Amino acid sequence: MSDFGQEKTGVADKRETLGFQTEVRQLLKLMIHSLYSNKEIFLRELISNASDAADKLRFEALAQPDLLGEDELGIRIEVDKEKRLLSVSDNGIGMSREELIDNLGTIARSGTAEFLEQMTGDQQHDAQLIGQFGVGFYSAFIVADKVTVDTRRAGSDQAVRWESDGEGEFTIEDIDRDERGTSVTLHLKADESEFADSFRIESLIRKYSDHIGFPVSLHLAGEDDTKVVNSATALWTLPRTEVSDDEYKEFYKHLAHDFTDPLIWSHNRVEGKREYTSLLYIPAAAPFDLWNREAPRGLKLYVQRVFIMDDAEQFLPLYLRFVKGVVDSSDLPLNVSRELLQQNPDLTAMSGALTKRVLDMLGKLANSDDYGAFWGAFGQVLKEGLVEDHGNKDKLAKLLRFASTQAGSDTQDQSLDDYISRAKGDQDKIYYILAENYETAIASPHLEQLRERDIEVLLLTDRIDPWVVEGIGEYEGKALVDIGRSALDLPDGDGSVSQDVMNEEHKGLLKKVKRALRDRVESVNVSRRLVDSPACVVAGDEDLNPQLRRMLEASGQDVPESKPILEINVDHPLVGRLSAEPDGGRFDDLSHIVLDHALLAEGSQLENPAEYVHRMNKLLLDIDTGASDE
Ligand code: ADP
Prior knowledge:
The protein contains 22 helices and 22 strands. The protein has 630 residues and is of the alpha+beta class. Helix 1 (22-34) packs across helix 5, helix 2 (41-63) crosses helix 6 and helix 9 packs parallel to helix 12 (393-399). The model is unreliable at 1-11 (pLDDT under 50).
């Protein structure tokens, strides 16, 4: 399991010194320096680990009841102010020697190295990043200069001690220990003795553990009595009216290992054919591994209060992977496994209901000032729903936010309903443009005619947008229309002159341009969408749009050959000049340049930039000679 190469036999009571994995070393260093405005969170992390350990034991005891024994599962915190000691003990699952080395010597998460690279040394920024990462056990070193972990795995008689000053190495040795479970002892730094203070620690325990399902007791050195400090009822089992907002928020932090408050939550008990309780949260910021396909996701599953698994991904679709929460089912079997979950017919209905719940919660959030933060963090993930989940298309479409010509900024904050509320009386379509980025979109020649007529256009610049608009198709009876396509149907006015009639009028010019550009364009048309630009390219109605094409090509896929349609603005002086050009060679060069400029304007790359530069230079020299001739 571990890559530290320790021997399994022959070291029974020897003390071994092992090195932390490089990432752990980095993390420790950064954490100690960037988290000191938020030191106390180490206690939440240690209590969470202890409670997870108790959960895991209860789960294993389903199959092996003797593991559990007689004792009540619980967590005990001891402080000794004199000696500056603080320990968090549980009688949960414990760890074997190997598990101890693996769990507390490495970070078993992919992407950690890249994540750590983003650290800058700027405390506030780094603290926030670490918050997304979840610091866990190592946060003990924020307040301790030495940490000792004594542990014995349930069912084993071998106990082990782990010890480290957080500087790069840790030691492992066998010890005697009567009880199963784990004790984490912090040797507090000289200036952190407040954490061994009875009042301070009691209020922190209450703050960080009131909602967890096990009793947490506090024991002061030199005193006989031990008192249970928390209420020890799993938060989701309480009626909504008995839980305060602060308690919901604190529970979220425990659950998600997050520093920041959630944006919104939804707590429900479902009764009837299927009985279950769910508590679902929307985080305020994206975790660092949101885009990592292997990253754990899903809800924490309990069956009748017994913890079954973390990251049960069967309850929500992939596009809601940012949701954190708990499901506690009354009727799933206790021995349910990931495989059994997959086959369970009840699950489809449950996941359907939970998905609706999340979408309704987002609908509520959409009416608040927090929606911008949500959209910024998770908008692109939510968009996947338009591809993945057609059944909820209407609900999802309502939640989308776009940049738009009328809003005048690159912030995605306009809904389809906003768009419709501004649409002109006879406008029965929703117009959009696809582009690589906001700047290209807003400067696109395709917008000219619509801008002139004050028709709003949504500016779509996310990679997934071509699929999103296809997924929506129509919203409130209005079709979504790509203004970069050849057949552009604008409300009223110039629809009266058909493309054919307009082309007929300029037949000669079109034919000559087409001949000059023969291999490069599908056809040449007179444009009805341009005002200030001489030309633009559009896609045929059946063709892939250029964004999609570029994306597919970049991912190495075979894309069917298709050429753009060139549209020219016959009222533009440059086209006038082209039309009047007597010299055949120069006419061809100018035609190519007009096309190249149209391609550049939509964000495409030229197939042969050198040729373009050559033509352009030739033309510039011509202009120069032309001018001196006069
Ligand atoms: P996380 O809890 O996010 O996985 P941690 O760094 O806090 O990360 O802990 C790493 C691992 O060490 C845990 O996943 C768990 O397997 C193990 N561990 C930590 N504390 C305990 C404990 N009190 N009892 C048993 N195992 C523990």
